[in-house]
Amino acid sequence: MQATITNSTTRYGWGSIILHWLIALIFVGQFGLGFIMVRLTSQRTAFELIQLHKSFGFLLLGLVILRVAWRLGNAAPALPRSVGTLERRAAPLAHVALYAFQLALPLSGWALVSVSMLEIPSMPFNLFVMPNLPLAESDAAESFWASAHWYLAYAGIALVVLHVAAALRHHFQLRDGVLTRMITPSLDRE
């Protein structure tokens, strides 16, 4: 038996698993990086961390778009029969909310740098210049997008905490295998 890249009816495949954990790592890391970079006293270090934050933001945006496309092409495994009706209805909504926040956060960051009066170019990992979104530069727009980015970040982290809590509840309290199917891939015989 070999693990497959695509999902089966009972487990996620390598494609979903790798994208899930890579996005999770970057998403949580971005929150930590953003939290640190705005509190530094060294302007040079803060500038370098902001550039790194923007680089990972663009990477996150690309990976989430790929993840959504992958999800549309690979049906999620069915939930175990033990999962109740309310949770069965809430789970897809929670996943849509996570995807929405993972798209909205980098987009709001991109909007923020696009409207900034500082006009500092975004160069993801120093590979190329990312063009700005076609938005008018102004202090008011910059203030709006900075606030939007901040609120989205904290709301996104709250969603991640709920997601993790639900996964741990399934694993330790319900013992229904929901978490393990996002850790061990589907097999070719499933």
UniProtKB/TrEMBL annotation:
Subcellular location: Cell membrane
Needed co-factor(s): heme b
InterPro entries, alphabetized: Cyt_b561_bac/Ni-Hgenase (IPR011577), Cytochrome_b561_oxidase (IPR052168), Di-haem_cyt_TM (IPR016174)
Highest taxon of source: Bacteria
Residues passing through the membrane, by range: 12-38, 50-70, 91-113, 148-168
Keyword flag Cell membrane: yes
Membrane disposition: Multi-pass membrane protein
Keyword list, A-Z: Cell membrane, Electron transport, Heme, Iron, Membrane, Metal-binding, Transmembrane, Transmembrane helix, Transport
Primary residence: membrane
Pfam family name, one: Ni_hydr_CYTB
Cited SUPFAM superfamilies: Transmembrane di-heme cytochromes (SSF81342)
Domain Cytochrome b561 bacterial/Ni-hydrogenase: 11-184
Iron keyword on record: yes
PANTHER family: CYTOCHROME B561, CYTOCHROME B561 HOMOLOG 2
Family: Belongs to the cytochrome b561 family.
Protein name: Cytochrome b
